[in-house]
Design a protein that fits this description.
heterotrimer, A alpha/beta (414), B mainly alpha (87), C alpha/beta (408), B: 87 residues, mainly alpha, C: 408 residues, alpha/beta, two-stranded antiparallel ribbon, 31% helix
Chain lengths: 414, 87, 408
């Protein structure tokens, strides 16, 4: 059996509610700065909530060919921006030969959501003749991943996958496996979503999973806190460049961290409801550790799914206890959704980026708004912590019975 | 509608559809060679034209358009043919 | 996980298509050249430039889906659950439970839950709001995993018209690598609601031919001028060969290669050079460790658009060279229409059935072929088919290719 290749993370392109660009994003996460704010457009559209994690200060024209802006949805704009930033961060703008076989595997939960909502409403109000010719290519979830390949001339495997909250993690996992197996040397992977829209807000509100929309917006998302009552809708893009390690070394690129394990599975109780015994989540955690060849004792930091609903957080703790046992008391835990909100297709990719950066900087970012923790574990409450971490893990326990886990290792230069 | 106003409308639509500044869209600009319209742009062009109440350009005519001036000419022809009806 | 490289076979088929529900009725209809394209009767098309579609008829959700789920979900979930259920039954995997713990579900769809969203928005949000993830593409595989108690990865692949083929390709890789012993791989598309339908009209990819509906989809014909949109669902059971043999399973065919790429060209227009099609077919053949001359049958993407069919033939010529003359090429969309994200899976099912029966199905409506090759225009024929190749090319320059082998 051929040996598995090592997989390095060599570029990060981030657009999050609290910052555009890897550096700004990292600094703000370390500082515990929330990106959640009142979004006036939502209020104007009669949305039941108005606090959301929007990527602010974003100009599509900075990243998207002008001709494409009108005919695509914000999801493609954010995705293309993330791709451009990731390739630039990896120092890959000029190298040509790798492009023809570079894989693009991207997660997206919704697709061109705003385009659809506006288009359908106008069509039913004014007539079908108002339907824009680019409606299908703007709506399809593969709009972002398709355009990434077209604009950046990336000609290898091209996939868009959707597993809601774990889309980014699964995309990264599939890319990881291909590089491990020696099937390609480079992959652009991660996730993107732009679901801050009236329909999506109304739907999650109807399901009773959105946090109460009152008070200071930065204080609304409170995963693992006794007062928590839901999540905050957000958008984002996190694109990672994964590269076979020898290839990365040969061109002298920065290695933020290594990706060493991945597993994914399904809960089977009910779509949208975690299995009561968390058996599926324990299994995925164990499988991910097994695939990385490490035991739970090696993990110093878990970037949790940390959604912020009563049910999800308690199910997650049960799962972590099942996988780590007493060891959980020594593990640092944090939830980025406390600062960023829940950005669906991009959330698990943002978390993967955070794991890589945490290992690179040996610093764990905080769970903010944690004033009354419900569980007696170390959630790095409210302030970032410097810590010596060898291995980190990222969990995504999705609202569609989809679970994924990624394991990362600090890169020491060898 | 006078030719000047029609020209302005067409220029505005082409600017929107191609993303090029209106100042760079001239009557003798070639749609494909200068303004880089692709086949989807031609469909978008027709869509936007109808969205502002101008007549539909039949498929056969759409194929013959080479310059901006051709678009103005064709629309003018259909406008004058049906002065009372925009759609 | 056993690791290494497992051989992968197709042991079950579940098909819900415009010309038949269930693998047997579907196959018989395809062999007979029976079209499933009809005049749309689900909504008023008076103001639409196109009035036909490939429609699944005689489908009763209650036969396949429990009552409260029928209410809470929409057509794509119904079709998907039906196809999955039919496939598992066909594979005689309904009772066995051991393999379910790591079984994967990979389903392709192009527009996902667009139609569901449309109907909720059109109804001014009066109902259906509490059914997330129904409006999203992840809904179908999630429901299949839960209803069938399948504990491995479940995911949706969304790459427009190549989704179904990519889904089969990804599931194939999971079984081949040993991650799962069994995978449900397929595609589902239910886009026949006014906005979703009109959006395809607006892109001007649909044929506006007002002739008899069943004659409009005519891939490779000189007079073709667009595709016919359709709905469908197909699920294939992919299984490790050892596992299948051990339980005495019926084997339709072996899946031996898969590849995917981007043409890097345009979101809706194929690259006329066909360079990307050549690359993807060559990559799939390499993955299968086969030479082009070993392929006997090609199930073409064959949408019946001017651009696709022309470019596809150029690509096939570049790959097969003089071998083109001995190939049989089917354009199945001539009978089924183009079911977008489901098409690649439906056509994979046709390949599996072709391998088993050693019969190639026709390209119907081919009265004035533009290209001088054997498109099986005269009706289904017995042929020796040792190896087959299936193409699916999607919007976004997304290409996917699968290679099948006869299972002795």
């Amino acid at each position: 059996m051929p040996t598995k290749k090592r997989v390095a993370i060599t570029g990060l392109g981030i657009l999050a509610s609290n910052g555009i660009g890897r550096q700004r994003f990292w600094e703000n996460c370390v500082a515990g700065r929330s990106g959640i704010a009142r979004v006036s457009a939502l209020q104007a559209q009669g949305c039941p909530v108005s606090a959301a994690g929007q990527v602010s200060g974003f100009s599509a024209a900075d990243f998207v060919p002008v001709k494409l802006i009108e005919r695509t949805d914000r999801v493609a704009h954010l995705g293309l921006a993330g791709a451009a930033l990731a390739l630039e961060d990896a120092g890959l703008n000029s190298l040509e030969d790798w492009r023809r076989s570079a894989a693009v595997i991207v997660g997206c939960g919704f697709g061109g959501q705003a385009f659809v909502e506006e288009g359908v409403e106008r069509a039913y109000r004014e007539g079908m003749h108002t339907v824009h010719p680019s409606s299908i290519s703007a709506q399809m979830p593969s709009s972002a991943s398709g355009y990434m390949a077209i604009v950046h001339k990336l000609g290898g495997v091209n996939l868009c996958l959707s597993t809601m909250c774990s889309s980014g993690a699964n995309a990264i996992g599939l890319a990881f496996r291909r590089i491990q197996a020696g099937e390609c040397e480079m992959a652009l992977t991660g996730g993107v979503d732009a679901p801050i829209t009236p329909f999506v807000a109304a739907a999650y509100r109807a399901m009773g999973v959105l946090a109460s929309d009152t008070g200071e917006p930065e204080r609304i998302a409170k995963p693992f806190d006794k007062r928590r009552d839901g999540f905050v809708l957000a958008e984002g893009a996190a694109l990672l460049v994964l590269e076979e390690l020898e290839h990365a070394r040969a061109r002298g690129s920065t290695v933020y961290a290594e990706l060493v394990g991945y597993a994914a599975n399904s809960g089977t109780h009910a779509v949208g409801e975690p299995d009561a015994d968390a058996g599926d989540r324990v299994r995925v955690t164990r499988s991910a550790l097994e695939s990385a060849g490490v035991s739970p004792e090696a993990i110093g930091y878990v970037n949790t799914y940390g959604l912020g609903t009563k049910a999800s957080d308690s199910a997650e703790i049960r799962a972590l206890e099942g996988a780590f046992g007493r060891r959980l008391e020594q593990v640092l835990l944090s939830s980025s959704k406390s600062m960023l909100g829940h950005s669906f297709g991009s959330s698990s990719a943002l978390d993967a980026a955070l794991c890589a950066l945490s290992l690179h900087h040996q610093t764990v970012t905080p769970t903010i708004n944690l004033d009354e923790p419900e569980y007696e574990y170390d959630f790095v409450a409210n302030r970032a912590r410097q810590a010596e971490i060898g291995y980190a893990m990222s969990n995504s326990f999705g609202l569609t019975s989809n679970n994924a886990a990624l394991v990362f290792r600090r890169f020491h230069g060898n | 509608m006078g030719t000047e106003e029609l020209t302005q409308r067409v220029v505005a639509i082409l600017s929107k559809v191609t993303g090029k500044p209106a100042a760079t869209v001239h009557l003798d600009s070639a749609l494909i060679d200068d303004l880089e319209l692709d086949s989807i742009n031609f469909i978008e062009l027709d869509h936007e034209i109808r969205a502002v109440g101008l007549p539909r350009i039949p498929e056969a005519d759409l194929q013959t358009l080479v310059k901006v001036a051709d678009v103005v000419r064709i629309l003018s022809k259909y406008l004058n043919a049906e002065p009372a009806a925009a759609r | 996980m056993t690791g290494g490289s497992q051989r992968v076979v197709v042991t079950g088929l579940g098909v819900v298509a415009p010309n038949g529900i269930g693998a047997d009725p579907f196959w018989r209809a395809c062999v007979a050249g029976r079209s499933g394209v009809r005049t749309v009767d689900r909504f008023d098309t008076a103001q639409f430039p196109v009035k036909i579609a490939g429609m699944v008829t005689g489908f009763e959700p209650a036969e396949f889906v429990r009552a409260e789920l029928v209410e809470r979900t929409e057509r794509s979930v119904h079709l998907g659950l039906a196809a999955a259920s039919l496939a598992l039954k066909d594979a005689k995997l309904q009772d066995e439970s051991d393999w379910r713990r790591d079984a994967c579900v990979v389903i392709g769809s192009g527009v996902g839950g667009l139609s569901f969203q449309e109907l909720v928005i059109a109804d001014a949000y009066r109902g259906g709001l509490d059914s997330m993830p129904a409006p999203t593409p992840s809904s179908v595989p999630a429901h299949i995993a839960v209803e069938q108690k399948l504990g491995g990865l479940n995911l949706n692949i969304s790459t427009a018209c190549s989704s179904g083929a990519n889904a089969v390709g990804e599931a194939f890789r999971m079984v081949r690598s040993g991650e799962a012993r069994v995978a449900l791989a397929g595609g589902v598309e239910a886009p026949l609601t006014p906005y979703a339908f009109y959006a395809h009209c607006a892109l001007r990819v649909l044929s506006t031919d007002a002739g008899p509906p069943e004659q409009v989809s005519r891939p490779f014909d000189k007079t073709r001028e667009g595709f016919v949109i359709a709905e469908a669902a197909a699920v294939l059971i992919l299984e490790q060969r050892d596992h299948a043999l051990a339980r005495g399973a019926h084997i339709y065919a072996e899946l031996v290669g898969a590849a995917s790429n981007s043409g890097m060209h345009h979101i809706a227009i194929p690259d006329p050079s066909a360079d990307d099609l050549v690359r993807v077919m060559s990559a799939a053949l390499r993955d299968a460790q086969l030479e082009p001359r070993q392929i006997d049958y090609v199930n073409a993407h064959g949408t019946s658009t001017r651009a696709n069919d022309h470019t596809e033939v150029r690509g096939l010529e570049a790959v097969f060279g003089p071998q083109m003359q001995r190939l049989c090429i089917s354009g199945s969309k001539s009978m089924l229409g183009h079911s977008l994200g489901a098409a690649g899976a439906v056509e994979a099912a046709i390949c599996a059935l072709t391998m088993e029966n050693q019969v190639v199905t026709p390209t119907i409506n081919l009265r004035s072929p533009e290209f001088d090759y054997d498109f099986v225009a005269g009706g289904a024929q017995h042929r020796t088919v040792e190896y087959a190749l299936s193409n699916s090319f999607g919007f976004g320059s997304n290409n996917s290719c699968l290679v099948f082998a006869r299972h002795a």
